[in-house]
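Hi support team,

I submitted a single chain yesterday and got back a structure, but I'm not sure I'm reading the token output correctly. Could someone confirm the output below corresponds to the sequence I sent? I've pasted both exactly as they appear in my results page.

Thanks,
R.
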Amino acid sequence: MYQIRNNHFIDDDGRIVLLRGVNLGGSSKVPVSPHGATWNPNSFLDPYGVSFVGRPFPLEEADEHFSRLRSWGFNFLRFLVTWEAIEHAGPGRYDEAYLDYLHAVIKKAGEHDFLLFIDPHQDAWSRFSGGDGAPAWTFDRLGMDFKKFHAAGAAFTHQDCGDPYPVMIWPSNYGRYAAATMFTLFFGGNTFAPHLKVDGVPVQEFLQGHYMGAVRQVVERLKEFPHVLGYDTLNEPSQGFIGCADANQIPLEVVAQGPMPTLYQSMLVASGFPQEVAYRAEKFPWSRRSKVRLNEGGVSIFHPGFGCPWKEHGVWGVDRSGSPQLLKPDYFSVVDGKPVDFDRQFFEPFVRRYTQEIRQVDPKALIFVSPAPAEMHTGAEGFSLGDLPGMVFAPHWYDGVTLSFKKYFSWLGVDTSRHPMKIALGRQNRVDLFTRQIGMQVQRARRDLGSAPVVIGETGIPFDLDGKKAYQTGKFEQQEKAMDDVIQALDRNFVNYTLWNYTADNDNHRGDQWNNEDLSIFSRDQLTGSGSLEDGGRALKAVIRACVRRVPGELVMVYFDYTCGFFQVDYRPDLSIQAPLEIFIPKWIYPLGVRVHTTKGRTEVNLDEEWVRYYADGAVPVCSIVIQKRNPIFREKF
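Hi R., thanks for writing in. Yes, this is the structure output for that exact sequence:
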């Protein structure tokens, strides 16, 4: 549908296309039945018999939600599926009812003129290790009993912890034994666990093969739809233990909270050896630590006849007295005498294989490459995929302070991806810092993927700021400011993006139904029944914006002031392109029309269809278009 050139999507007229959308949806991480919300302590009872039919919403509600999103100015979706939704009943047993539902709801999206890409979503490997994504049998086939993870300290789940579930503690599961072991085996089983086989198949092949087989089922169902642009590789993948220089270190310490076992201690507690480990109640690495006894009951997570694969591969062992001892502290960082490079040695081969698997079914599919988040990545960054056509770089970016503390500090910005962290004081410096952070992703796209366009696959804000104060007052001023800071930084970098998120069953009490998160721009609890465009929305003053859709040339500047509706775009026209610049102008912002000021050129305005078109004059090297609200005193027609 689109060409790719100079890190942009290009339409048939040669114009840059900018896509603006949402993730659909936050509760797609958990099953519809049995009720899979993480706050439900019974949501693990039937892991093989679940159903995701109705995620992100029942088919009969599709027109309502797609119409609402179109009216808010969105034209793009990152559509979530999970491996568990497709293959929960067992290896090779696909849920045909879910795949039928998926076909029907994606067809509906096309009827509402949405473009989209499919995101095979995961967080911390699986629901059963404190996140979402992989089916329960991935643990079972490796001899792990997920029902014992929480007690042993191998995972920290909402279901077992109960309420209150600490804010943003779930990412620490990436460094705990269950998820970290699975990711190590998924990406590096051939290297680090060469003797481990499942059903006679090497463990890496078993896991990757089934994952890709499940995604291929989705591609088979959706390949007929031209509005499905392609497929994400794997949401926020982790390198697990790969690259960890010393097993006596705390894995992913920057995101660790609660009990913080070292890599070696995590192996011991999983095998039933109680350990005294560091404990952090706060979210930043400089916060004070204490000590806590982990797995006091000596619970082993392994079924009879199974044991820790790292013990079996000689990373650690037990002496004659029964005491454990670490044997190979650098096991995951050095292979054949050379330092490990996760991106080049493990992630890049996975992406190449995934691309081949997907394009065997749908040769036209774009591949959206989702790298490991910077906060959860160690070692040298960088893969080399510039030789593959049809690639899109789809990293994620969040304002880490607002996300972690659920408070908006207009005067503070922190770059959590750097060590030590970089701090900016003052709101303008805060937005400048965000702009630079996102700009680094654009630079990385050029470095690692050549001409690949950039789609910020996730970004957004929590709406339950300040103890959910806005839900009592109905005033979302803090959320509007926080959201505007984020979107300003995106606009300055001219990137495509999908906000996290739109959750159809969000409510003020339980948010997105997953791990105490509440980032949805929509909630049933904000519906008033008025039937107005904004009904059900949150912070829409910052979300619904005038924006550039198509650019016949090179963008120089984009700016929107949500407080007054002022919009400006500057660009260098490519005079070989006859098609106009196109700007989306929401009637909700400009109910009485717009006043347009431009450099030389011709302008067309259609408020009913919500667009402004501008045709450049050939004599102008840089064109400037300014749009303002029409003064209610003056109602003259354009």
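A quick pointer for reading it: The two ends are 34 Å apart (CA to CA). Let us know if anything else looks off.

Best,
Support desk
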